[in-house]
Amino acid sequence: MNVRSLILVFIIAGSLGVACKKDTDTTSPSITITAPATSSSFNVFDTITVAAIVKDDEQLESISIRLLDQDQVPVLPTISVSASSNSVSFSKLLPISNIHLSTGTYYVNVFASDGKNDANSFVQITVIEAPLEVERYIVVSRPGSGLVRLDTIDDQFSIGLQSQWNGDHSTTAVNSYHQQIVVGGGDVSAALSLDGEYASVVWSAANLNISSLPYFKDVHFSEDHLITYMTNEDHQIRGYNENGSVVFSAMSSSIYRPKKVIGHGSLVIVELESIVPPLNRLGSYWRSSGVLWQDHPLSMDVVYMNPRNSDRLIMFGNENGQAVVEERDLDNGSFWTLTSLPSGTLNDATAINATSYLLAHENGLYRYDYSTNADVLLVGGINALKVSYDKVNAMAIVAVNSEIRYYDAATGTFLTSVSLMDDAEAIGVLYNK
Predict the structure, then answer these.
(1) Given this model, what pLDDT does residue 210 score?
(2) 153/389 Cα distance (integer angstroms)
(3) Quick one: residue 45, left, alpha or beta (phi over 0 = left, psi -120 to 50 = alpha)?
(4) Per residue in 153-162, pLDDT tens?
(5) d(CA 109, CA 73)
(6) Confidence (pTM)
(7) What is the pLDDT of residue 23?
(8) Which domains does the chain have, with CATH numbers?
(9) What are phi and psi of 234, to 5 degrees?
(10) For residue 77, cis peptide bond before it (omega within 30 degrees of 0)
């Protein structure tokens, strides 16, 4: 063998040796987190200083910082750290910017990789949730022909014009989670999702009406699904995310008109009004597919419905002009009247908690308690048109013609009132989260 051949053999052998060494690298990076200290506590909107030393016998390729919940799901954007050598020492700021975090145990996670081996290190901390606060009260009215007006009322009960536009109005929902106010038009106007602070349009849904009836029947923000559901005159039932993308779609039979809607667990529950009365139904659609699971006879015109547990609803409405309340089993469609509500028409209702409700009745403001199956008159002698509940200050907010009145929700004691230019068609509370 000549000299040139020997050199070639040694080069090949050396290359194979290096390759084998690389391919057999099984050593993961080592991570030492020096801050924060284990069991530290932080409030939402605090900033965590994350410091660590990361080493490896090879060149480090990536390092990142995450905050994980108890299910190891990231709850903040990932922060990347420059990995320029085989030993990196860093200190980074991790702002707790997610206002929706609840009080509990979380984990600061530092991840490192050399391209072949990964490593994770964790420090357990406690995050304390941001307190629920009222941002403003929302009022929608129509002060003149062809106008829709959005007013806000602050914590000093001062009212101010937020926005006004040409059009009509049918239904409104407040989405505190995404800080949006969704206003559905009548037989002309589109549905507009407005920014909760500036009232600028975030997204919209077209009004495709071909009849003289309001196109948007109901708008409901599901806190369970974090989706805004809408029912339409053309039999469509749609769910929109915070960007206005359709994430749920279903259609009722042509002989039914979808009206009241809520999201509940794996289902979307819809009141189906018969175009030829009186054959109304309550339909349950699968959230995942939009396919109708089942429907059952419904005798009331629904005003408000709310889950009692995973398979039952509490429903308020009117039957032949008389207010009624019933409990309904979603599995088999059975239902039973809970109690006889006061004589007259129910205009609106809302939940105080899982067992107590405020009822806006043509003869006054009532509270219904499921635990005692009884209603109590809080305020008599008023035609309460709309009602909302302020769960921070335990206040009932009631629309009485062109006046918004605030009452103590437990006693009915009058607190204050705000005058409008015209009758309120929708009221609500925008919270900070």
Answers:
(1) 87
(2) 14
(3) left
(4) 999 999 999 9
(5) 11
(6) 0.90
(7) 56
(8) 30-128 (2.60.40.10), 134-431 (2.120.10.30)
(9) -90, 25
(10) no
Report d(CA 229, CA 239) in Å as an integer.
4
Can you say whether the dihedral through the CA atoms of 283, 288, 290, 294 is positive or negative? negative
**What angle is formed at CA 318 by the lines to CA 141 and CA 407, rounded to 5 degrees?**
50
CA dist 93 and 45 (Å) reads 12
In this prediction, residue 369 carries a pLDDT of 97
Task: Give the residue among 402, 400, 404 at the shortest CA–CA distance from 381.
Answer: 400
**Where does 203-307 have alpha helices with state H?**
none
> Are the CB atoms for 223 and 229 separated by under 8 Å?
no
User: Residue 137 contacts by C-beta under 8 Å, 6 or more apart in sequence?
Assistant: 152, 153, 154, 388, 390, 397, 404, 427, 428, 429, 430
SS3 (DSSP) at 371:
coil
Name beta bridge partners: 166.
147
Joined together, the tokens standing for residue 122 give 């964790």
Q: Number of C-alpha atoms within 13 angstroms, CB side, residue 197? A: 4
DSSP annotation of 151: E
Low-confidence ranges of the chain (pLDDT < 70): 1-23
Q: Where are the alpha helices (DSSP H) in 171-268?
A: none
Q: Which residues contact 111 (CB under 8 A, 6 or more apart)?
A: 62, 63, 64, 65, 66, 118, 119, 120
From 414, 314, 316, 407, select the one nearest 359 (Cα to Cα): 316
Q: Where are the alpha helices (DSSP H) in 224-348?
A: none
What DSSP character marks residue 190?
P
**Residue 150's CB: how many other CB atoms inside 10 A?**
21
Identify the pLDDT of residue 24.
Answer: 78
How far is 333 from 374, CA to CA, in rounded Å? 24
State the amino acid at position 303 in one-letter form. Answer: V
Residue 84's pLDDT is: 87
Nearest C-alpha neighbor of 260 from the set 290, 224, 302, 298: 302
CA distances from 272 to 191, 302, 433 (A): 21, 10, 32
